[in-house]
Amino acid sequence: MQSLFDPHLDPSERAKELRASIRHHDELYYKHARPEISDRDYDKLLSELEQLEKDNPELQTLDSPTQRVGGSPIGEFRSVTHSVPMLSLANTYSDEEVLDFDRRVREGLGIDDPQYVCELKVDGVAMSLTYVDGLLALAATRGDGQTGDDVTANVRTIRSVPLRLTSDCIQTATVRGEVYMLAETFLEINRNAEVHGEKSYANPRNLTAGTLKQKDPKSVAKRELQFVAYWLDSQDERLTKHSENLRTLASIGFATGEASRTCSNINDVMAFISEWDEKRFDLPFQIDGIVIKVDSLRHQEELGAVARSPRWAIAYKYEAKKAQTVLNDITLQVGRTGVVTPVAELEPVLVAGSTISRATLHNEDFIRELDLRIGDTVVIEKGGDVIPKISAVVLSMRIDGSSPWHMPHTCPCPRTSTLHHPEGDAHWFCDDAVCPWQIRRRLQHFASRDAMDIEGLGDKAVDQFVDAGLIDGIASIYQLPERRDEILVLDRWAPKSFDKLVAGIANSLKQPYARVLFALGIRFVGEGVAKILARAFPSIETLSTATLEQLKAVHEIGDSIATSVRDFFDTADNVELIESLRDSGVQLSSNETEVQTQVFAGKTFVLTGEMTTMTRREAEENIGARGGKASGSVSKKTSYVVAGANAGSKLVKANELGVPVISEEQFRSLLSNS
Hints:
7-stranded antiparallel β-sheet; 6 domains
């Protein structure tokens, strides 16, 4: 991409030009869905700005697009009070209730036909944004309506939230709206979870809420959340109508939902509700109803509120779309960690605009609770959830002589290995290390970005190589460079892509021991647990020979993790795998700089105030490297509170509880002596 700017501009001017261009392209992409440049060209602009600000830190501003990638992890979410309470809407579920709402409004105002505004009720998480001098100063969740959590660092990563208002007319304002997730983003996250043998999420709203409470903004940025604004409060302009406020919000940089409509009477409102009852399933995000608001702000004030709900607005909730179909069969699918999940094979049926032929049945308990039987007529439901679900059995249509379904005790793969059901666990498992169904997903996990990060070995490449018989397990990945001729005859493979794969495999040999432990896919061993194990057992030999008691003696390693690790290394195929990886040159021990003494084992630290010689994240990593734990709250069990400059309530609580308080200098001394 040709640079649009003069390369001889001084860094300050260049940064301004880049920010203006990136904001322009952000608005086109996120607000109008009309991008002018490719993702690659956009990334070049952003990378140039990031490098410019890295070389010239004094140029970085709070509203710079580089701030959207996420900063340091959040210690805890502080509570903030809303300047104006965030009221909750009363819900209605019938036309009669909507007409009754209109009657109350007309009687309360003493007029015949009040004007309304109808908006799509996006199924997300309510958010309040405060702007001061045009800059985003605070983002807070609804909470109890009076107080919420400060999630500013996480909301900064949402590209449809302006970091700076785009109009000089309004500089100080409170903007409210909904944070939500696109359906395709949600489905992709669930697909990845399934590939990695992890639990999938129920619906986009729950995942959005959980994402906003993540402690690491970088993790939030990866979830690609969206924001739509629906409320404005500002003293900078005279505000008279909600419909005008929506236009004002759009003019200062917000997406407001193009489907909103001003209705001159209740009949227009009912027509809008009916129109979107079917059209809602064509949207790229979830809505669960329509919000109806009195347009005049003076009328809103006159009507007031009752309890925690305004009298001038109401939410009409759509019912979930349902259909009946036949359960033809119940099949099994096997995840990376051996979790075996039953799946409903359905007679294809159209529900809410999409054809449904399969639905997860979660586990044996779920099937037993519904008493599902093959041949049953079942109710398929699709409402607030993106993923369709079986919600009921039509017992009146049950076939005579049908039998309850029982979980098979053998794996559905060609090896038909025996499944087992751990006591107290809802799932059944296949423990066969060479189960072909598990192999694909185990390979995909091993090569993934967060594990060995093997560029060129994505999910599709794994499928190709397995189908072609080129790989049958993790160890065989490292023989792929020797199979050049066999790979180049496959579709979409050329010398350049093969060289990229070979380089990716070579680079994976540099991945540290903790990454390798995570990549092995041991059940319950995520990234965090892998790091703990790597510190406690600095080589694969010491870990593989550790007893259950030795494993459980490690802080944060409980019975389930210890048993899983022990089971992994007690399996002959896994022992053989480790030896193959060793022969290939994979890092199976920590180097000297990674090995730290465990002097902080069993100790909990709380960091408060501003640190001057290291970042909070660096401090937490230093604590973890020495076997300790960094916590966000002070209790009697806290070992030390590290108090930096301007320490607040945590310092007060530490003094009240008699918890030892040390300075940043004393903390650094502890690190130096460990």
